[in-house]
Amino acid sequence: MLVAGMEFVPTTCPYCGTGCSFYLVVRDNRVLGIEPWHTPPINEGKLCQKGRYAHEFIHSKDRLTKPLIKENGVFVKSTWDEAYRLIVKKFKSYRPEELACLASAKASNEENYLMQKFARTVLKTNNIDHCARLCHSPTVSALSEVFGSGAMTNSILDLQESKCIFVIGSNTFEQHPLIGRRLILAKKRGAKIICADPRYTPTAKQADLYLSMYSGTDVALLNGLMHHILENGWEDRGFIGSRTKGFAAMKNTVMKESYDLKHVSKLVGIPESDLATAAEWIAKSKPSALIYSMGITQHTVGVDNVKSVANLMMLTGNIGKPGSGVNPLRGQNNVQGACDMGCLPDVYSGYQKVTDQESRSKMMRIWGVDEIANSSAGYTVTETMNLLVDEPGKIKCLYLMGENPMLSDPDLDHVRAALESVEFMVSQDIFLSETAEFADVILPAACYAEKNGTHTNTERRVQRWRKAIDPPGEAKPDWLIISEIAGLMGYDKQFSYKKESEIFDEITEVTPSYAGMNYERLEHPYALQWPCPDISHPGTQILHTEKFATKDGLGLFTAVEWQPPAEVTDSEYPLILTTGRSIWHWHTGTMTRRSKTLDAEVKTGWVEIHAKDAEKLGIDDGEMVRVSSRRGNIEIQAKVTKDIKEGEVFIPFHFKECPANILTNNALDSIAKIPEYKACASKVEKIKR
Ligand SMILES: Nc1nc2c(c(=O)[nH]1)N[C@H]1C(S)=C(S)[C@@H](COP(=O)(O)OP(=O)(O)OC[C@H]3O[C@@H](n4cnc5c(=O)[nH]c(N)nc54)[C@H](O)[C@@H]3O)O[C@H]1N2
Ligand SMILES: Nc1nc2c(c(=O)[nH]1)N[C@H]1C(S)=C(S)[C@@H](COP(=O)(O)OP(=O)(O)OC[C@H]3O[C@@H](n4cnc5c(=O)[nH]c(N)nc54)[C@H](O)[C@@H]3O)O[C@H]1N2
Ligand code: SF4
Ligand SMILES: [Mo]
Q1: Is the domain of 122 the same as that of 201?
Q2: pLDDT, tens digit, 9 for 90 and up, residues 647-657
């Protein structure tokens, strides 16, 4: 569309997994602003503040515009030729097991697909992972096992059909604001909203029933609700009998005395009567939906938490129907896609296992190579970081695309030690991040407005990015950089793409759930939701309607016992620290802190502390305090409030001058390998000057 010399380019928001659409307003190769695009169904032209100002970082003066090579500790501008020559020489010098790649949930499906293809065909390693590990890896592990598919079962619009929405460990109004809007619309249509969170968040404030719980007590809470439902005979026997297995063992566990409401109430810190009300609403509302996010997954018991959530919704027959479901809200704009594309150490695209010989042979055939990475799973990013410190020399080389672990991984002193022990590291980013400082070569990438591609939102909807302007200076799209390096490593035939749609066509060839898609079909403002198995298939809004995606078609109940977090409070560290986000900022701040509007609203971090705890410590609102854990300490402003549970403190992790991750615990879930960002022991002190 062209108006008075201005072009309106339709595209999708680069921030969160909601996947809102808008127009970029372009003139003279510059993005001037953002205008609403009303047709796409998710946001109907509405945007949160990040989407509204998603153009402001694009033309930042400090965008990377040329490759940089570190010489004697200083970054020096280089040509692409020089940078590529060095990278190829180094990559060729390592054995497959000495290399690891990190893909990016900020980049497109095409780019992520190529990154894992590069790792597996060129470097011959399965050591590929990305930030989903820190985020929804328990969802992928647990829901794949119990439902046969790790994705959100229902859709964003579908939430409006619900009669009761149970939000647990998700601050939907701040982290997925345009999904939050659907909660309000559901509420207007009579739905009851329940919110379980240790903080009285903007989401909790919209709820009809707020359950103020301690961090790390979710399984106890969920088992308690199931205990009460079973005690009252409110379970859906028809659904349990025809669609599931494993019920008896699950029932034996939740019916233990330790999960009756009296015991649970004490452990989780919620009045018995509120627990009883929640159980009754969830069981009787028909349909009820459940939404969860990081409050559930970021624990050493993340997988248990997700299985427990699945138990509750199967028990009440709330799967496979409109307005129901287990709805993990995926975080990054394309974290669903980066997982779908196989940027995980154990699967190719479409979750086809690297251990499966048939899948492996198929990949080799379509990729046109005789050899790819072996058939055992590679290392997760959290394992890689540990190995770098514990067994130096085992992994020697890192290729990172669009990730900033030096602020986003737990226990930053540990991360620093890990990055310092890497022999050769490439960081491909749009900015020189805290992590890029450790690199030997930095490659300048194009951002979302400067390339074509697709990305997949939290409800499995595959939507287009459309190129509006050229990248700054000599920056290139990630897909082109990866293809050029592959070409120079001797794989020019396998990476000979001229444009993004050619990569997408290959994705649809190897990935059954995307098989019926192409760029032409995705031009429609509604795009398509996977599974979309053939070219006439309309896409899928609700999963598991007739049967589950498991081998026998049944949903699997699991007996799950509550376990405390890896680190509990004591007299030295008496406060539970939990971490998370603000509506105004994005993760490590590389983009939002370069947006003048967002930065003007919230300039730095804070620690939320309950007024009674603050009073005991003699701390005033706004005062600088020291927060410590067993791993380190930071100085940060206190926000004294009644909107957090007593005994608990909260810090957003966006701000490099007061980084929450100095404090967090690197203890991992044994299956999903996610760190426990949501509960560790801490103390808050006045700073004596
Ligand atoms: N503005 C903004 N939006 C974002 C992001 C961002 O950085 N900024 N990041 C995106 C990404 S990648 C993700 S993964 C999502 C995350 O989205 P959310 O998971 O909604 O966000 P968080 O703030 O990490 O945590 C959610 C809530 O969990 C609560 N919580 C803490 N501990 C526990 C617990 O033990 N149990 C329970 N039940 N709740 C607990 C916290 O108080 C918090 O309110 O947001 C996405 N959206
Ligand atoms: N304490 C604490 N820590 C957490 C969490 C928490 O709740 N608490 N949450 C965790 C979660 S859920 C997540 S998802 C992670 C996120 O962790 P990260 O993914 O490391 O964080 P981001 O800041 O989103 O980093 C994305 C990087 O990509 C770059 N980028 C943007 N667009 C492009 C592009 O098109 N191409 C390339 N090459 N680069 C691009 C950005 O500049 C930035 O450097 O953080 C985790 N860390
Ligand atoms: S809700 Fe998410 S996708 Fe929508 S505008 Fe806000 S950040 Fe962008
Ligand atoms: Mo995330």
Answers
A1: no
A2: 999 999 999 99
Q: Is the pLDDT of residue 689 over 90?
A: no
φ, ψ at 426 (rounded to 5°): -115, 130
- Please report, for the domain that includes residue 621, its CATH number: 2.40.40.20
Q: How far is the CA of 60 from the centre of ligand 3 (A)?
A: 21
**Is residue 521 in some structural domain?**
yes
CATH number of the domain bearing residue 48: 2.20.25.90
Q: Where are the extended beta strands (E) located within 105-234?
A: 128-129, 164-168, 192-196, 209-211
Q: How many angstroms separate the alpha carbon of residue 207 from the centre of ligand 3?
A: 21
What tokens appear for 299 in the block?
A: 């624990």
Q: Which helix (H) or strand (E) holds 335?
A: helix 335-340
Q: Is the CB of 13 under 6 A from ligand 2?
A: no
Instruction: Decide the pairing of beta strands 192-196 and 164-168.
Output: parallel
Q: Which residue shows structure tokens 């008075």?
A: 4
How far from chain centre, in Å, is Cα 33?
27
User: Is residue 299 lining ligand 3, measured as CB closer than 6 Å?
Assistant: no
> 580 CB under 6 A from ligand 1?
yes
To test the ligand 1 pocket, which listed residue (175, 194, 299, 563) has its Cβ within 8 A of the most ligand atoms? 175
Examine the domain organization and report whether 362 and 458 are in the same domain. yes
Please report whether residue 606 resides in a domain. yes
Dihedral in degrees, nearest 10, Cα atoms 631, 635, 636, 639 = 80
- What is residue 331's predicted lDDT score, i.e. its pLDDT? 97
Same domain, yes or no, for 370 and 463?
yes
Does 431 share its domain with 467? yes
| Calpha distance 478→635 (Å, rounded) | 37
Among 328, 358, 375, identify where a domain stops.
328
18 ligand 3 Cβ < 6 A: yes
Q: Choose the final residue of a domain: 282, 311, 328.
A: 328
**What's 520-550 look like in SS3?**
HHHCCCCCEECCCCCCCCCCCCCCCCCCCCC
Inform me whether the pLDDT recorded for 4 exceeds 80.
no
Give residue 614's region: left, alpha or beta (phi > 0; psi -120 to 50).
alpha
The answer as to whether 507 is a domain residue is yes
Are residue 310 and residue 353 in the same domain, yes or no? no
Alpha carbon of 682 to ligand 4 centroid (Å)? 23
Query: Which ligand is closest in space to the CA of residue 172?
Result: 1
pLDDT for the residue numbered 139: 96
**Cα(290)–Cα(194) distance, rounded to whole angstroms?**
9
Q: Let me know whether 98 and 118 are in one domain.
A: yes
CB atoms within 10 A of CB 585: 22
Q: Using a 6 Å cutoff on CB, does residue 244 contact ligand 3? A: no
Domain count, the chain: 4
Residues with CB under 5 A from ligand 4 (ion): 135, 331
pLDDT given for residue 2 in this prediction: 62
Whether residue 435 sits in one domain with residue 297: no
Q: Please report, for the domain that includes residue 258, its CATH number.
A: 3.40.228.10
Domain at 396, CATH number: 3.40.50.740
What is residue 1's predicted lDDT score, i.e. its pLDDT? 61
- Residue 139, classified by CB atoms within 10 Å of its CB into exposed (0-12), middle (13-18) or buried (19+), is buried
What is the band of 688 on the pLDDT scale with cuts at 50, 70, 90?
confident
Q: Do 86 and 18 belong to one domain?
A: no
Nearest-CA residue for ligand 2 atom 45 is 408
pLDDT at 5: 82
For the stretch 604-647, pLDDT in tens is 999 999 999 999 999 999 999 999 999 999 999 999 999 999 99
Best residue for ligand 3 mutational test, from 11, 12, 13 (most atoms within 8 Å of Cβ): 13
pLDDT in the model for residue 3: 67
Provide the domain limits for residue 581.
575-686
> From the CA of 409, how far away is ligand 2's center (Å)?
9
| 649 lies in some domain | yes
598 CB near ligand 3 (under 6 Å): no
